[in-house]
Write a structure and sequence with these properties.
Layout (H helix, E strand, L loop, with lengths): L1 E3 L5 H8 L8 E2 L4 E3 L4 E3 L2 H9 L3 E2 L7 H10 L4 E4 L7 H4 L6 E5 L11 H8 L3 E8 L9 E8 L6 H25 L31 H10 L6 E5 L4 E13 L8 E4 L2 E5 L3 E10 L5 E2 H4 L11 E3 L1
Parallel strand pairs: 1-2, 1-6, 2-5, 6-7
Antiparallel strand pairs: 3-4, 7-8, 8-9, 10-11, 10-16, 11-14, 12-13, 13-14, 14-15
Helix pairs in contact: 1-2, 1-6, 5-7
């Protein structure tokens, strides 16, 4: 039985559907209106379930009696959860004979919670990964049976890292299911001393503090891209830009944080200690552009400043 909802969970469902095991069913969040037209669209996992011809359930609450009855009727041996996005009550967790396991995008017990990829980038972690663990009452606190780790690449954004981890999750779950099916899986408790938390991101997460060192600001931009997304207001030009990619530049001598300079096709933003090169940006309502192209149509005042919004 597979439980998942967003795009992140799709590679796992696809990988598991290709194993020797039978897919008893798929549970996903209800379809919701999306986009500017607010058209109701299937969740990415629901769409794949229909493509695979798998039995599909999309309950408002998994603990409701009809949903539990549906789970029992499927008779699954094991439940597999990837970014389902809904509390899983004990009655549902215990429906499969072997319980439920989850693929979490972190090296547990570090970064339990809803946004582990973003908080790992923001903290400057050198490595991250996928942990396959039992689904327990406390969020992401279950015993772990398998870990796959990977270095975080320089300049990798949260969106890029999440896409890479989604593929790793599929590979890790296929291996974990084989270990569980063969009885070789060993579940170990997480070390309480190493627990950190990764709460859901609020919009304020993406509001930059330019009085911090450039390295710290660059990490926040990577962590907040593509969501919630980092925006700056150009004070003199009266325009708003989204920063999509940035890198740490040279040191400066006492330039006020927030000052902007354009030179040789580069757009530089002053932070506390160094310049931050803004490499890719998008003006409101326009397509994303490298800074060199953006500067061809955007004349900056000599005293232009960027104000975080």
């Amino acid at each position: 039985m597979f439980l998942g909802t967003p795009e992140f969970a799709v590679p796992s469902l696809r990988a598991l559907s290709r194993t020797r095991h039978t897919l008893a069913g798929v549970v996903s969040q209800p379809d919701r209106p999306r986009g500017r037209g607010r058209v109701v669209e299937p969740t990415p996992v629901a769409a794949l379930a229909r493509e695979l011809g798998a039995p599909l359930l999309q309950p408002e609450k998994l603990g409701d009696a009809p949903a539990l009855a549906w789970l029992r009727e499927r008779g699954a041996d094991l439940g597999i959860v990837v970014a389902f996005g809904q509390f899983i009550p004990k009655a549902a967790r215990e429906t499969p004979r072997l319980g439920m396991v989850n693929a979490h995008a972190s090296l547990l017990p570090r970064w339990r919670g809803a946004a582990p990829v973003e908080w790992a980038l923001d903290a400057g972690d050198a490595r991250t990964g996928i942990s396959v663990m039992r689904v327990a009452k406390e969020m992401d606190a279950g015993e772990v049976c398998l870990v796959r780790d990977t270095p975080i690449r320089p300049e990798e954004t949260a969106g890029e890292l999440a896409e890479r981890l989604s593929l790793m999750a599929g590979e890790a779950l296929v291996a974990g299911v084989e270990e569980i099916a063969s009885g070789r899986a060993v579940f170990r408790a997480q070390d309480p001393a190493g627990v950190t938390f990764a709460p859901k991101l609020e919009r304020a997460f993406a509001r930059l503090d330019l009085a911090l060192p450039a390295e710290r600001v660059a990490r926040r931009i990577r962590a907040a891209t593509p969501r919630p997304g980092v925006d700056l207001e150009l004070a003199r030009a009266g325009k708003r830009v989204s920063v999509l990619r940035a890198r740490v530049g040279a040191t400066h001598s006492g330039v006020a944080p927030g000052a902007l300079r354009a030179a040789d096709g580069q757009l530089l933003l002053a932070c506390a200690d160094r310049w931050l090169e803004l490499c890719e940006l998008r003006l409101a309502g326009k397509r994303a552009l490298p800074a060199s192209e953006l500067l061809r149509g955007l004349r900056l005042a000599e005293d232009e400043r960027a104000v975080p919004v």
